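note to self: dont lose this again. the chain is below, predicted strucutre after it. 172 aa total, dont forget to put it in the shared folder this time
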Amino acid sequence: DTTVQARAAALVELNSDTLVYGMNLDEKVYPASLTKIMTCMLAIENGDMEDNLTVSASAFEGLSEYGSTAGLLQGETLPLEEVLYCVMVSSANEACNVVAEYIAGDQATFVELMNQKAQKLGMTGTHFMNAHGLHDWEHYTTVRDLSILARWAWSNETFRKFATTVSHVVPE
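---
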């Protein structure tokens, strides 16, 4: 049965970069936590895994009380590597904001970097509004663009380490 129960979909054979199946590839969709792929990759490209990051009060601003969290606390300090485990394993929204502030100084500047990188990658149907993916009407992408993002990220060995980890305990 090849019935796809989604608004949009893509199946890409990675070795040949061949689109095997596509449905509504350019329809606007909301990426939700797939946004964290871009956040993680920008941290990998621009950060040092051993740098210690401090969780600021602003890392919690604008987050939903029902959103994913790693339970980070204001003032807590931990290495970028551990924060990225929080981003990718726990889908922690506050950890995304910690990364954004570390890489760019503030969340708004980081979002600008996200959009610049998306354009550089050829993601012409994408516009980011935050580092975590909580819903915003102006935070959108397409399945075509998500496939570009995923292929780019998957080519990075460090990203694959974070993306394939199913459980991780952040040391005290």
